Amino acid sequence: MTPTIATRAPAGIARSGSRAGSIGLWLVMLAQLMLVLDATVVNVALPHIATDLHFDRAELSWVLNGYAVAFGGLLLLGGRIGDVVGRRRTFLVGVAAFTLFSLLGGLATSPLLLVIARALQGLGAAFAAPSVLALITTSAKDDGARNRALALFSAIASMGGALGLILGGLLTDTTSWRWTLFINVPIGVVVLIAVPRLVAETPRRPGRFDILGAVTATGGAVAIVWGLIQAGDVGWSSPRTIGGLVIGAALIAVLAVTERRVAHPLLRPQLLRSPSRVAALAAMAATYGGMLAMFFLMVQYLEDDLHLTPMVTGLAFLPMPLSIFAMSRIVPRLLERFGAVRLVIFGTALRVVAFLPLTQLNTDTPFVVVLLALLGTGISAGMTFMPLTTLALRNVEPEHAGSASGLFQTMQQLGGAVGLAIVASIYAAFAIPGDFLTGGRAGFWSATILSALALAAVLGLVFKPRKTV
Q1: What is the pTM of this model?
Q2: DSSP 233-246
Q3: CA distance linking residue 114 with residue 366, whole number of Å
């Protein structure tokens, strides 16, 4: 049976099905691509950033995780604000903030200023991103149109990380690392000018904002990621590591309690009563964590061991976005024939198989092994992201579409941040100065285990009755 999202058709993309509506949808998707790219676009530029701004090893990881933690930690609040005050309005505020702090990040003259700018970019992204998915799911004219739009959204979400590496390498080699941030400014300006003319505002929904939920969700995410990052340098038994994890867990526990008691929760407990949705959220977190960790390790292998330039390193990832885009053209038909659960099971199993050769890398590994691993990863991502999205958003009422999409993207971003922190810590624990491969192989093993956990989460649906809310 084809997965559907139970939505009516409130105002969303202007004149749905018209030329203006199509242009508006593409511009909204362009903004989403910009937000996703920024999770990795500075990755290949990190050595240049460290040299230019004098980052130390511990600080440098926050160039990536400062963005990811703020993005993931505030997505639920961004989704709720979109439901209450209007999704187009919230989207535009988020894009404006993202564009402004991209400019300021590119102008940064110290590590602190860059990390602050990256975190504030994440704040803007957290406001904009939930409204993108909510506008798509509430404005499609029928199930077929919705599935096609979700396929495009999923392709952007899954190939954005690889495209960020390619774009980052090209900009770093041909201009400066600062242009990995400056490139967002003209895109953001175009979106801010055009979207108000092409995309209609959605109806406002009554309710209040759950500020305590936002504080505990974000604080818990920051504390957990901070603790995991510390583990690589100070050890897993260090008071700093344990303290960060305990504080993070305590804040998440407070979040779980308060969300059951407040009148307008940031995280609706009802959304977690569907086994298929919970499995999709867990699988997305583990999937994105494994993929970002693989990107992090692969960049170092290509640049440190194979001595490739940033541009060539970025281009080495080209098989991924190409295969993801190709899969996005056929996945809607596969979804109709085989169903979401089967596609996700096959796709996550393929990713585990693709990662396994990376755990055996050595100095004379043929480069074709790396290319095949990246190709397999791209095919698996293209096969799984859209079905996971449909499982997570199926049977969500229109008034809660922003909250549900915010929850889904929260799991994606925080899964990426936590997964990267875990793998980076394991890599650091086994690392030998001047020898990437010893720590790198341990890191690739941990990324493979994360992918296996994603497979296990979805396999659970095969043995349980499917329920929806």
Answers
A1: 0.76
A2: HH-TTSHHHHHHHH
A3: 38
For 153-170, the pLDDT digits (tens) are 767 766 677 788 888 888
Neighbours of 192 (CB within 10 A): 17
Measured between its terminal Cα atoms, the distance across the chain in Å is 17
Residues 70, 53: Cα–Cα separation, whole Å: 22
At 412, list the tokens: 């994606």
Q: Which of 392, 70, 90 is nearest to 214 (CA)?
A: 70
Which residues are registered as beta bridge partners of 13? Answer: 199
- pLDDT tens column, 405-429: 778 878 887 888 888 888 888 887 8
In the block, tokens 């409130």 appear at 10
Q: Are 111 and 50 in contact (CB under 8 A)?
A: no
Q: Which residue has the tokens 């590590």?
A: 111
Helices (H), ranges, 140-238: 143-174, 179-182, 184-198, 211-234
User: Are residues 283 and 458 in contact, defined by beta-carbon separation less than 8 angstroms?
Assistant: yes
Tokens of 271: 């959304």
Residue 297, both tokens: 């390790």
Q: The tokens of 369 are what?
A: 């092994």
Whole-angstrom CA distances from 426 to 17, 287, 388 are 49, 18, 28
Report for 133-142, 242-251, 293-302, 317-326: range of highest mean pLDDT? 242-251
Nearest to 25 by CA among 16, 36, 37: 16
Instruction: Of 422, 355, 348, give the one whose Cα is nearest residue 391.
Output: 348
Q: What token pair was written down for 52? A: 């230019």
CA gap 449, 78 in Å, rounded: 31
Q: What is the DSSP string of 250-315?
A: HHHHHHHHHTTTSSS-SS-GGGGS-HHHHHHHHHHHHHHHHHHHHHHHHHHIIIIIS---HHHHHH
